[in-house]
Specification:
single chain; about 190 residues; mainly alpha; 6 helices; about 0% strand
């Protein structure tokens, strides 16, 4: 419901209650006036009750409505304050997320650059080894390749040109050469 509809409904309820009180006061007044013409005509109203006053009832109703309006205004102000606080926190959170995403991109770029540098350095080292094995005598190179771990020996043979491998083949362990040839034929 909108605020106006709620206030109107509340006003009607309060007005209805006030009218009910007025009708009740009026009926008491009529009853007392009827009783006053009878045997108790000289008595005043009982002590707990005050005589009916329309202006007093209107003032009380207005005071109640004003108090409710005041409470409603306070609640709306508190709600607006909370909404603004939430907006501020949301903006801060979005800024933090954006900063974290930018930092992640920077770190990713740094890691990528570092791994690229490491790969280049490794390739340079392997290329130096390839040149070394090309310049060595075939018998010495074959013995060194035989002493390497299987995976390293096969990787080195893959990097050497065919002419150099052909020179080294007689001096390399034959099962190793056969494995290298099989892998090349399989397309690994």
């Amino acid at each position: 419901m909108s605020r106006r509809v709620r206030l109107l409904t509340l006003s009607l309820v309060v007005t209805g209650l006030t009218l009910g009180i007025l009708v009740q006061d009026f009926s008491h007044a009529v009853a007392e006036s009827g009783a006053a013409s009878g045997p108790e005509a000289g008595k005043e109203a009982p002590q707990g009750q005050q005589p009916f006053s329309a202006s007093r009832a209107a003032r009380e109703e207005k005071a109640i409505q004003d108090a409710r309006r005041q409470k409603l205004a306070e609640k709306e102000a508190a709600l607006a304050s909370k909404e603004q606080e939430l907006k501020n926190l949301s903006a801060k959170l979005e800024a933090l997320v954006k900063a974290m995403e930018e930092n992640k991109k920077k770190v990713d770029e740094s890691v990528k650059a570092r791994s690229g540098d490491q790969k280049k350095q490794q390739d340079d080292k392997v290329q130096k080894m390839v040149k070394l094995f090309k310049t060595m005598r075939a018998e010495q190179a074959g013995q060194l390749i035989d002493s390497l771990h299987e995976n390293l020996a096969l990787a080195l043979l893959n990097r050497l040109d065919t002419k150099t491998v052909a020179k080294l083949a007689p001096f390399i362990n034959q099962p190793r050469i056969v494995r290298w040839i099989s892998e090349n034929l399989k397309g690994k």
